[in-house]
Write a structure and sequence with these properties.
Number of helices of chain A: 22
Strand order of the largest sheet of chain A: 12-13-14-15-16-17-18-21
Oligomer: homodimer
Structural class of chain A: alpha/beta
């Protein structure tokens, strides 16, 4: 199988168009049936596979960065009589378990990106449903703030997975039905049992959609509503977007190289080492100068490259179980860039970059690989980059210097970036999650902002897991990594998913922690994926045979 | 396989002893290796199967009802050098998926019952760990308020499941580590990776235990601490307990009969009909008179019988997918008993009964069967019994009367019991969960307290899902039940688990909703249960072979 690549651009889209109307953009879904990742299935009726979601994710991102003038985004269908049939069933039937899980994770991240744009970017998403919105198609609508349904006696919203496919509705859909749209639970039960879905006034009464529009006024009303939403936006007037230029990237067999990120894969030990390089240029002289740098501005460049690397490892390197997180460079330079970003927070582009860094760090939080941060001399775990330590399952720090190395001992430098701008999915900062049992430790850490913290003090402050002297380092690390590699990958995935998110739950953590786990369970059950299972037999005309035991 | 019966009493215990010392009770775990549910395994080293947990559950319950003088309970081991080795691995290796899941659910309920007793019953639980507490053994300790560990250089706490068994630690253990004891997440990661566990001062520093006690002072210190905790209790002086006498129960092939509960199984339709009968005696003249009734006092009797019926159906009737919830009797009589209970809330026994009803209703909430409440003429869905409507996935109410039936039309009568005393695991009442999207509906319902609400009004108030006239009733119900029976049981289990708990998450909902789902997933994975999986090969001397793909 060819590697999955999440990099694309509108000129290469096969499934989406972006149309502009002043401060409103239309994201038009018009899936090319033959444009999927594999030729084993056709993407009929606007059904989707990962290739469709990769383009959607790219479009959402470009609208934020390249189009400051866009203040409302309408998702609609480019096909007559169908909005979107959801995830392609033949694709799901043929995919490996790992691909299904990764696909669902990425689509959830994409839907959360829609909600993030609405909440933080002043780009309000609406959905205009003309035709049927089924399963993942309705889930796409659920991610928007305002769902409009045409009243044509045919168009409906539906979550037909339970009756049709023996899997869970959508992959985050149920959580949005109960916790975002707050549909009454017995109505949700009925809704999820009806193949043909719910349409018309009942869809409004049940809170499944926000507005019903007569066919005759459809286009006009959608446009009016979108422009109304656009007026609420705080996006700037007359700003110019920046272009998300193609990544500087070289992919080799065991190495990925970017301008600020390097990934080296060690297959024999089932691990990858990701090194982030700190900025080599001083901060721009002004916010305008930062704009002029565009996609080469260090914080944006490193965010894009790190995101690409993480997604590459998720999709294409299932056998790599451990990611070693490293940094190299000047800690003060990282803090300088952090401060530049935070001080220019009123600027729309700096705000976008900060929220983008937040989303990339969240992708790391939900990556099903063991994360170990290595803090050594020459590293620059400062501010934003120090978040990698707190995203990691463990962190290991070298005490003092290595023989023959003249660099000062490794140090962590905390910054304001560690105390607010990058909340996890649970709504807490990584430090607040880490210190949930000893909130006073957050205050102690905060007092160290800007001061290099070496190993002994870092351990005392609870910032790192383990510290080793240089003569122990290699052996201890080798043993730790061998041990990790010897454990069951499944037990590790579940254990890490549970340990990473202490404290409060949000819709987001429910989607990743609870609903995904149930879907993963179902994706293993013979009733779904067995030879007689509903996913396997879908479309064959043969009824699935279920083991009727309730578990 | 013989049916699993959760009824027992101390005279029949094979695994536990209860020892009394004034206001302190010791729950002594001394598992009989040959006393398990099956002779395919031996329960060595205080490892447990369901038979051990059934006795523990019974003991916790009896301490609350039969021993008002007990104010602190110490869980300890009756064996030298081992506290508890956790769930028996050979049992897990041989059990069906369904049994494993039901076993884990019941043990979680039992551990929550320990926490409930501490919080609401004034019986504070402590754990005295002398020897190793591993896996589920440590999880038992985690359920108590105060964990004491002997400092003998050998005794340790440990969650060795990831390294040893390729499954998740405990089944609620991880959640209690992060969310109850609030152990730092990277320390939790290290702790869960170390087979031999953590002992001594480090166990205290890492918040894994509360207190380390020298061997020489062990028994004395445990006793002192327990009596200290006992002094915090608000349990009464000089009260007499009541005896939880054996249930009046007749089990036939397709029928379970109790004094106030009847269960009729219809195997051809894969459903069971549970009918609760309202009280036939007027309320007692006084609280003392209610005490004198003991286990025959209607609210207590119906709670015990309903709990037994639900657990019987869970453990012994996996093919029964739908439970029809019905009531028969006088609604006012139910409300009278409710009011009696609530007015006498200062009385320890009435308080116990109320909390017990709460726990039984919670067992229904997490039962993996579709719940459909049928509200017909002659029913008494009032107050406490009306909670069944709101626990159900759907409720169906008959409009008007049936031909030839002189009884008045079906009515729901709300009471104070529906607005506070029975919170779900998410901390909200069932009505508040139901109306999470329209909180004003709770106020509307509250205004109807005491007034019979017939079908049309019940639908308007949002209290029921569907209403049918008598001439449609049979057909509509038949179609609904046939439809439900045609769906994949797995999809239904997961869908219901997700729809039942909208809104806030608690440690309890995390345990059932999130952690259990991950464990269920792992219990399906070849790395755990395949022929080369860790659970299958445990104790054989052969190393498991893992598929190393990260999912």
């Amino acid at each position: 199988m060819t590697a999955i690549d999440v990099q694309t651009d509108p000129a290469r889209y096969r499934h989406w168009r972006i149309e502009f109307d002043g401060d409103v953009a239309y994201l038009v879904m018009d899936v090319d049936p033959k444009g999927g990742l594999s030729d084993q299935y056709e993407l009929k009726l606007n059904s989707y596979d990962l290739s469709v979601d990769i383009e959607l994710s790219d479009a959402i991102q470009r609208l934020r960065f390249e189009h400051p003038e866009v203040r409302a985004v309408v998702i609609k269908s480019g096909k007559d009589n169908v909005f979107c049939a959801g995830a392609n069933i033949r694709m799901l039937g043929k995919a490996t378990h790992g691909h299904k899980v990764n696909f669902c994770k990425f689509t959830n991240e994409t839907r959360l990106a829609i909600e993030d744009a609405t909440e933080y970017s002043g780009q309000f998403y609406l959905c205009a449903i003309n035709g049927n919105a089924a399963g993942g198609g309705y889930e796409l609508a659920l991610a928007t703030e305002h769902i409009m349904l045409v009243d044509d006696r045919r168009s409906a919203v539906t979550l037909p997975e339970t009756p049709l496919l023996a899997v869970l509705p959508g992959t985050g859909g149920l959580t949005r039905v109960t916790d975002k749209r707050k549909v009454r639970r017995d109505r949700a039960d009925v809704f999820c049992s009806i193949e043909e879905g719910i349409r018309g006034a009942k869809a409004v009464e049940w809170r499944l959609v926000d507005e019903l529009v007569p066919n005759s006024k459809w286009a006009e009303k959608v446009s009016t509503r979108a422009h109304e939403f656009a007026r609420r936006s705080d996006r700037p007037q007359d700003a110019a977007g920046i272009t998300l230029t193609p990544l500087e990237r070289r992919i080799e067999n065991d190495r990925l190289s970017y301008s600020h990120v390097d990934v080296v894969i060690d297959r024999s030990r089932a691990l990858a080492s990701i090194t982030l390089h700190g900025p080599t240029q001083p901060i721009p002289k002004s916010v305008a100068a930062a704009h002029a740098l565009g996609a080469t501005f260090w914080p944006l460049a490193v965010a894009r490259e790190l995101e690409d690397a993480i997604l590459h490892l998720r999709f294409n390197e299932p056998k790599i179980g451990v990611l070693l997180l490293r940094t190299e460079g000047d800690a003060q330079a990282v803090l300088d860039y952090d401060n530049f970003l935070l001080q220019a927070n009123g600027d729309w582009l700096m705000r976008e970059i900060r929220h983008y860094l937040k989303r990339v760090l969240k992708r790391i939080d939900v990556t099903a690989k063991s994360l170990i941060a290595l803090i050594e001399p020459g590293s620059c775990f400062a501010g934003t980059l120090a978040e990698l330590i707190f995203a990691a399952d463990r962190s290991v720090m070298l005490i003092g210097a290595r023989e023959g190395d003249n660099r000062p001992p490794a140090a962590i430098v905390l910054g304001r970036a560690n105390f607010g701008p990058y909340p996890m999915g649970n709504g807490l900062t990584r430090l607040a999650t880490r210190f949930i049992g000893e909130p006073e430790a957050i205050g102690r850490a905060e007092q160290k902002i800007g001061a290099p913290v070496e190993a002994k003090e870092a351990a005392e402050l609870g910032l790192v897991t383990l510290t080793f002297e240089s003569f122990d380092w290699d052996d201890e690390l080798r043993i730790m990594l061998e041990e990790r590699a010897s454990f069951s990958p499944d037990a590790l995935t579940a254990m890490e998913a549970n340990l990473r998110f202490a404290g409060p739950e949000t819709m987001e953590t429910k989607i990743f922690g609870r609903l995904s786990a149930w879907q993963n369970w179902i994706f293993q059950r013979p009733n779904a994926i067995g030879e007689q299972g509903a996913l396997k037999l879908y479309g064959s005309g043969i009824q699935p045979t279920f083991d009727k035991d309730r578990v």
